[in-house]
Amino acid sequence: DINMQLYNIMYNVQRVINHYAVDENVYSRRKISITEYKKQRTNLLEKIVTCGKTAEVREKTLVYILAWLEEWNAILSEMTAYDIDKHFEWIAQMEMLPETFKATESNVKMLSRICTSLLEEKKKQKKKITNTTIPKRETRIHRKVHSMELHLRGHGTQRGG
Fold first, then answer.
1. Most CB atoms closer than 10 Å: which of 14, 27, 57, 124?
2. How confident is the model at residue 161 (pLDDT cuts 50, 70, 90)?
3. CA-to-CA distance for 83 and 76, rounded, in angstroms?
4. Are 10 and 48 in contact (CB under 8 A)?
5. What is the rounded CA–CA span in Å between residue 5 and residue 15?
6. Please, which residues have CB within 8 angstroms of residue 48's CB and are 6 or more apart in sequence?
7. CA atoms within 13 A on the CB side of 31
8. Residue 30, helix vs strand vs coil
9. What is the pLDDT of residue 105?
10. Residues 109-117: what's their mean pLDDT?
11. Residue 45 near residue 10 (C-beta atoms within 8 A)
C-alpha cells in the first residue's frame, strides 16, 4: 500500500519536474544537456525516496507510540472509582498517623508511670510485712548464722595456727 502511494507520488513529482523543467529552460533560455537533466532528476528522485523512507520510519515510530498509549489507556481505565476512593482513604489515614503515634506515646508513658507507682506501692507493702512479722525469726536466724560464723572462724584459726 505504501509502495503504491510512493510510486504515485513519484510519478506526479516527475510530471511536475518535467513541466517546470521545460518552462524553466524556456524562460531562462538556457539549454540543459540530457546528462545534466538526468543527474538533476536522479538527485530529486533520491531526495524523494529518502523522504519516503523517513516517513516510513516515522510511521513505525508513531505506530509504536500509539500501541504504548493504548496499553497505558487500558491500564489506567482499569482503575475504578472504588480504587480512587480507597486511595484517598489511605491518604487520610496516613495524615492521621503522626497524631496517632503521639497519642500512643502518651498512653505508653502513662502506663509506665502507673506500673512504676504500683511496683513502688508493692515494695512498700512488702517492707511493712517483713518489718512486722519477720523480725523475731530474723533475729533468731541472725543469731544462728552469727554463732556459726564464730564457730567456723575459731576452727579456721586453729587449723591455720
1. 14
2. very low
3. 11
4. yes
5. 15
6. 9, 10, 13
7. 2
8. coil
9. 92
10. 91
11. yes
- Say how far apart CA 147 and CA 140 lie, in whole Å: 11
In b/e form, how buried is each residue of 107-132, taking b as 16+ CB within 10 angstroms?
eeeeeeeeeeeeeeeeeeeeeeeeee
Average pLDDT, the chain: 77
pLDDT at 153 over 90: no
Q: Tens digits of per-residue pLDDT, 9-27?
A: 888 888 777 766 654 544 4
Query: Cell numbers 538533476 label which residue?
Result: 40
Tally of CB atoms within 10 A around 84: 10
CA 1 → CA 4, 7, 60, 113, distances in Å? 5, 10, 14, 86
The grid cell for 109 is: 508513658
Contacts of 32 (CB under 8 A, 6+ apart): 21, 25, 40
DSSP 8-class letter at 32: -
Beta strands in 43-144 (DSSP E): none
How buried is 37 (Cβ within 10 angstroms: 0-12 exposed, 13-18 middle, 19+ buried)?
Answer: middle
What pLDDT, in 10s, does the model give residues 37-70? 788 788 888 888 888 888 888 889 999 999 999 9
Cell of 116: 512504676
Q: Nearest CA to 45 among 4, 13, 15, 22? A: 13
